[in-house]
Specification:
468 residues, alpha+beta, Uridine Diphospho-n-acetylenolpyruvylglucosamine Reductase, domain 2, Uridine Diphospho-n-acetylenolpyruvylglucosamine Reductase, domain 3, 4 domains, 35% helix, 20% strand, binds flavin-adenine dinucleotide, FAD-bd_PCMH_sub2, Glycolate oxidase, flavoprotein, FAD-bd_PCMH_sub1, FAD
């Protein structure tokens, strides 16, 4: 092989989309998590045939391939930890077609999730998965991470809507899985295997998603609690009452204070917890259901509730919830965002454990999240430049994972394992679990070129949030 792999790639991809300038490479060296890893080239792919050609070259030269969407991963999913090439799909947005009569949408990998939502709504339809990053993340990234969001409580997560895929395998072959039918039990479910595989089993080049009819109406309520354990109990009691809200989002006092300091929305700052609840469905039914929920949450101790009277008031409350991330990011330069998830009955206990961890390690920790499905987001505000503080944060994060697993929960409800949580994987899935996962990886990707360094811990790998 006289030519190098970058030259080989330039023979099959327009040179303007093969980036090798050092400034470009640095732009692709980080994501929304931790760590800086500079790739050797960035390839902005726009067609299936381009991906096939590049992946074949990667196999020939044994070069790592790092698929990448908008790089909003919070677990280091797209980081090129072993150099090689980044495959950027963000320019690849040419297909976004809604098939109204089939309640299906077909999209290119780089399409933003919010654009899929909008296209569905234009047809009176609905794509329920709603990660808070929907306006800045790609559908392929959502699939690779199996992203969730507030509506996961009633509607499930990304995997529940993916019915067909076109994928370029790690050996450069084109594979189609599933199709346009809602039901399909032909063979192993390869569609579901790819969803959530974090770019380690192939490159997603086209997605087919199921849509639902758009709910006719929604109602939003804020319930305010002086005791966060009562907020946890209110969630359990609502969910066992026969009413299934579309969203139940928790914010602790620190979140409310941060939001009000950042941009006032009128959230109470003296309460220990707030739950935002959304119901959706037929307007007549909603009137009755919201009254029942009001009685339930007051019955378990809500100090008061506020029912949004107009769409504008409801939008204001949900905007306040969306503002939590930017508001807490303004408190300190670094934000460590976790997504430990526990069975719903364990939410109060998990919150107590988080408080103990906060005190033990003297860290600034806030809790918010999709509490209705047990998916909490403990966030630690810290300063990456303070080595001593970051060492305490690393220990605290390890204990958060341990607490979640001990309570029968999981390391990650929606952000994925990536590099950051890889050292903790075996604690959850066990030695045999890792062995079976590795067998799948090895048979799909014999040269280990597809997103290497993710999901599976490397020998001696530990959680490191400091710049070393
Ligand atoms: C402010 C903020 C809010 C967030 N809110 C949520 C939330 O509510 N819920 C949630 O679940 N997550 C959330 N996230 C995390 C993140 O947005 C999601 O994980 C998202 O799905 C990542 O999409 P992306 O386009 O940025 O992908 P990237 O970060 O670029 O990549 C993510 C993974 O997808 C893989 N990948 C990308 N494209 C392909 C492809 N074509 N084929 C195969 N693999 C591919 C990458 O290799 C990587 O492993 C949030 C992040 C931020 C910064």
């Amino acid at each position: 092989m006289s030519r190098n792999w970058q030259e080989a790639v330039k023979e099959v991809i327009d040179e303007s989309r093969v980036l090798t300038d050092i400034s470009d490479l640095y732009s692709y060296s980080f994501d929304a998590s931790f760590g800086t890893f500079v790739p050797e080239a960035v390839i902005q792919v726009k067609a299936r045939e381009e991906v096939v050609s590049v992946v074949k070259i990667a196999n020939e030269y044994k070069v790592p391939v790092y698929p990448r969407g908008q790089a909003t991963s919070l677990s280091g999913g797209s980081l090129p930890v072993h150099g090689g090439m980044v495959l950027d799909v963000t320019l690849w947005t040419d297909t976004l077609e809604v098939y109204h009569d089939d309640l299906v949408v077909v999209a290119s990998p780089g399409v933003l999730t919010a654009d899929i939502n909008q296209a569905a709504e234009e047809h009176g339809l609905f794509y329920p998965p709603d990660p808070s990053s929907a306006h800045v993340s790609t559908i392929a990234g959502n699939l690779a991470e199996n992203s969730g969001g507030p509506r996961g409580l009633k509607y499930g997560v990304t995997k529940d809507y993916v019915i067909g895929l076109e994928v370029v395998t790690p050996e450069g072959k084109v594979m189609n899985t599933g199709g346009r039918t809602i039901k399909n039990v032909t063979g192993y479910d390869l569609t579901k295997l790819i969803v959530g595989s974090e770019g380690t089993l192939g490159i997603i080049t086209k997605v087919t998603l199921k849509l639902l009819p758009k709910p006719q109406a929604t109602k939003t309520m804020m319930a305010v609690f002086d005791d966060i354990a009562e907020a946890g109990a209110a969630i359990s009691q609502t969910l066992t009452s026969g009413i299934l809200p579309s969203k139940m989002e928790l914010m602790d006092q620190n979140c409310a204070i941060s939001v009000e300091n950042f941009q006032p929305f009128g959230l109470p700052t003296d309460a220990e917890a707030i739950i935002l609840i959304e119901l959706d469905g037929h307007p007549d039914v909603l009137e009755k259901e919201i009254q029942s929920v009001d009685e339930i949450v007051r019955g378990v101790g809500a100090r008061y509730t506020v029912l949004a009277e107009t769409n504008k008031e409801a939008a204001n409350l949900w905007k306040a919830r969306k503002m939590v991330s930017p508001a807490i990011a303004a408190v300190k330069p670094t934000k460590v965002s976790e997504d430990a998830t526990v069975p719903r009955s364990k939410i109060p206990e998990m919150i107590h454990r988080l408080n103990d961890i906060k005190e033990k390690y003297e860290i600034e920790l806030v809790v918010f999240g999709h509490a209705g499905d047990g998916n909490l987001h403990p966030n630690i505000m810290c300063d990456k430049r303070d080595q001593e503080e970051m060492m305490r944060v690393e220990e605290a994060v390890g204990e958060i994972f341990q607490a979640a697993i001990e309570l029968g929960g999981t390391l990650s409800g929606e952000h994925g394992i990536g590099t950051l949580k890889a050292p903790f994987m075996e604690d959850e899935v066990g030695e045999l679990g890792i062995e079976m996962l590795k067998k799948i990886k090895d048979s799909w990707d014999p040269n280990n070129i597809m997103n290497p360094g993710k999901i599976f811990a490397e020998p001696g790998q530990k959680l490191v949030l400091r710049d070393e």
